[in-house]
Amino acid sequence: MAVFKISVFTMALVGFFIWLGSGITRVSGEGTLAPLGEGLTVENGEQIFWGSGKCSTCHAIGSRGGSVRGPNLGQSAAGPEIAIRSLERARERSTALGQELTGTDYLIESIADPSAFVVDGFKDEMPIVYEPPISLGPDQIGSLILYLQSQGGTPDPTAVVLPSEIHAAAGRSGAVEPWAPYMDGDSVAGRELFFDLEGPALCAKCHMIEGEGGNVGPDLTSIAGTRTTQFIVESILQ
C-alpha cells in the first residue's frame, strides 16, 4: 500500500510537470513550423532552435524566447550576439584547455558537452540535446550551429565538425526500448501537491515554477521540455 501511495504521488507530480512544460515551450517562441529541408542550412537551424530543439524554452534571441534558465543569445544587456560573444568564450576556453579553439568550436562544445563551461550567473542544467527526450541528430545539430553562427556572424558549414559522441548517439537511436511510466499522471493533483506548503511533498519550499516557490533548488518551470519522464520520476524517487 505504501508503494502504491508513493507511485500515485510521484505520477501526479510528473503529470503536472509534463503539462506545464508543454505550455512553457509553446509560449517561449515555438509556433507552427514548416518541415525541415535537406542538409545543413541556417533555415533548418532556425526551425530547430524554435521547435524540436527546445532551445527557446531556456534561451532567448533578443526579445524572443526565454532567457531565465540560459543566456540570451542575441544582442542584449548580456552582450553582443552569440557569434561575436563566442569568440571571447573561445579565448577563455583556449586558455583553460591549453589548445586553440575557434568560436565555432565553443558553440559545438556548448552543445556536445554543456557542463564543460557554464556562463557565470547560470546553473549547470542544460540537457544533452542529442539524447532523449530531445534527440537531435548530427544534421540537426549542424544546422543549429549554423543558425547560431548567423547571429552576428557568417555561417561556415566547413567549420562545423561534430565530435564522435553526437554521431554515436545517432547510431543508438531506436536500439533501446523506450521507458514508459507505470501509471498515468494527474496534472491538477500534481500542482496541488507541488505548491502545498503543509502537504507531504513540500516541493515549493525549494523549487520555483513560473516565479512562485523557493529558490534553493533549480527552477523547474521548463523541466518537462528538456528532461525525460524517466529522469523526472527518478529525481523524485531518489
Automatic annotation (TrEMBL):
Name used for this protein in its record: Cytochrome c domain-containing protein
A GO term for molecular function: heme binding
Domain Cytochrome c: 40-152, 185-238
Keywords, comma-separated and alphabetical: Heme, Iron, Metal-binding
Leader sequence segment: none
Phylogenetic classification of the source organism: unclassified sequences, metagenomes, ecological metagenomes
Keyword Iron (UniProt): yes
InterPro entries: Cyt_c-like_dom, Cyt_c-like_dom_sf
